[in-house]
Specification:
Layout lengths: L1 E2 L13 H6 L12 E2 L3 E2 L1 H12 L18 H13 L3 H8 L4 E6 L2 E8 L9 E6 L13 H5 L12 E6 L17 H14 L5 E5 L2 H12 L4 E6 L16 H17 L1 H8 L1 H10 L1 H15 L12 H14 L2 H12 L3 H4 L3 E8 L10 H7 E7 L8 H4 L1 H12 L2 H8 L2
Parallel strand pairs: 6-7, 6-8, 8-9, 9-10, 10-11
Antiparallel strand pairs: 1-3, 2-4, 4-5, 5-7
Helix pairs in contact: 2-3, 6-7, 9-13, 10-11, 10-13, 11-12
Length: 420
């Protein structure tokens, strides 16, 4: 069990995207207020985890398969041995607790977020809401928060300081899972707009990757009066209803490559979209199964050259996995794939008119050509950083932070002028 100052998880009323939008008409003095939150696992939960690890029933596997048919058994045995007898969760928890954590009830759903304000700013401060993806949580951004809030302490320009808001998506991390139907990216974007209202940010920048890229896209589409600019690490998988002849050669090549990638690597997403509950039983009950499901993606999607520990220490890997284990959110995190798969097709063809920037890291998956980005968004900046992959904020935090500073720099004055 995971608890904090706001208590343990509770059952919430069923709500809908309509009820989320209706919240914006609520009087300011009637809005919910954030409450400080300290993530803290009980000793009993940690002892139960260690007992399960030590009693793991390991499957038979062919010899010397490595990572060719899934998670490498040799590496997983090594990781699990460290998890059960060497990993210090309390130390990692203390590190995470250095950030200012909060929980708030939005449309009857408990949402966890980190809210870190700019330190010693010079000039206007631009607020950012950073949305993560799967299989992670606010963990994705833990190495860049201080780089963004206090750039002067890291050798960067103090005038580039941001206020940073990093929520856990519903059903991820310390945010509650929906009781009714899972929320899609459109509904989550509405929640984030409400959260930024409550925090006193009428204008802000939106940032995201993976699922968070889609959330940031809908923030820009549905709240263009609020979002000063949007920065994304990807454009998702291509969804195109037109004729192939309408695409450029680079776009056709990319669409074909994305289809090939989905056929070879996309089985996890098909499970998440179609039968997530079946998978959730096993992964919620077995910490080793959970680790195998997540670790394979950390390796495959990062810029690690096949060696996962070139990018993530065992402590970093296990912090991410342990967050999933202690919160019991692997099942609810998968449900967002099912919700997003039901988004009406016409939503995918909408073009983002808010100024958009993309950082396409060299080691990421399914990197779109510029022609596709310009077809789908008002592109003002595209870069291709030489290092980093799908989890660039934690793989290359300094490089990622500089990408955000450079992209958003022109919009600080715009935001300050608009708020006069």
């Amino acid at each position: 069990m995971v608890c904090g100052r706001v208590g343990t998880r509770t059952v919430h009323s069923i709500y809908s995207p309509v009820s989320i939008r209706r919240m914006r008409t609520t009087r300011l003095d009637e809005w919910p207020r954030p409450e400080p939150f300290i993530p803290q696992a009980s000793p009993a939960a940690l002892e139960d985890l260690r007992a399960r690890l030590r009693l793991t029933r390991w499957p038979a596997t062919p010899e010397d398969v490595g990572w060719s048919i899934g998670t490498d058994p040799t590496y997983l045995h090594e990781l699990v041995a460290y998890w059960s007898d060497g990993f210090d969760w309390q130390a990692q928890e203390a590190t995470l607790a250095q950030f200012p954590h909060f929980r708030i009830s939005l449309a009857g759903l408990g949402i966890h977020f980190v809210h870190a304000r700019a330190i010693a700013p010079v000039g206007p401060v631009l607020p950012l809401v950073l949305s993560h993806g799967w299989p992670d949580s606010f963990w994705r951004y833990t190495r860049v928060i201080s780089l963004l809030t206090n750039p002067g302490a890291h050798g960067a320009d103090p005038s580039d300081a941001f206020d940073v808001v990093v929520p856990d998506l519903p059903g991820f991390g310390y945010s509650d899972p929906p009781v009714g139907p899972p929320l899609d990216a459109i509904a989550v974007a509405d929640l984030w707009a409400q959260l930024m209202d409550i925090l006193g940010y009428p204008r802000f920048g939106a940032v995201g990757g993976d699922k968070g890229s889609s959330v940031s896209r809908y923030l820009a589409l549905d709240h263009p009066d609020r979002v000063v600019a949007v920065h994304r690490m990807d454009a998702g998988l291509p969804l195109f209803a037109g004729l192939p002849a309408d695409l450029t050669p680079e776009e056709r090549s990319w669409v074909g490559g994305a289809a090939a990638w989905s056929a070879a690597e996309g089985a996890y997403a098909a499970v998440h979209r179609t039968k997530p509950q079946t998978q959730a039983f096993g992964l919620t009950d077995s910490p080793v199964g959970l680790a195998a499901w997540i670790v394979e993606k950390l390796r495959a999607w990062s810029d690690c050259g096949g060696d996962i520990e070139r990018r993530f220490t065992k402590d970093e890997v296990l912090t991410n996995v342990t967050l999933y284990w202690l919160t019991g959110t692997i099942g609810s995190s998968m449900l967002m794939y099912r919700a997003d798969a039901a988004i009406p097709p016409e939503q995918h063809s909408r073009r983002v008119e808010v100024p958009s920037g993309f950082s396409l890291f060299q080691g990421d998956i399914v990197r779109p050509p510029r022609a596709w980005l310009e077809r789908t968004a008002n592109v003002v900046r595209v870069t291709e950083p030489p290092r980093g992959g799908h989890f660039a904020p934690i793989e290359e935090p300094e490089l990622y932070a500089e990408e955000l500073r450079s992209f958003f720099r022109p919009y600080r004055a715009t935001m300050a002028r608009d708020l006069r």
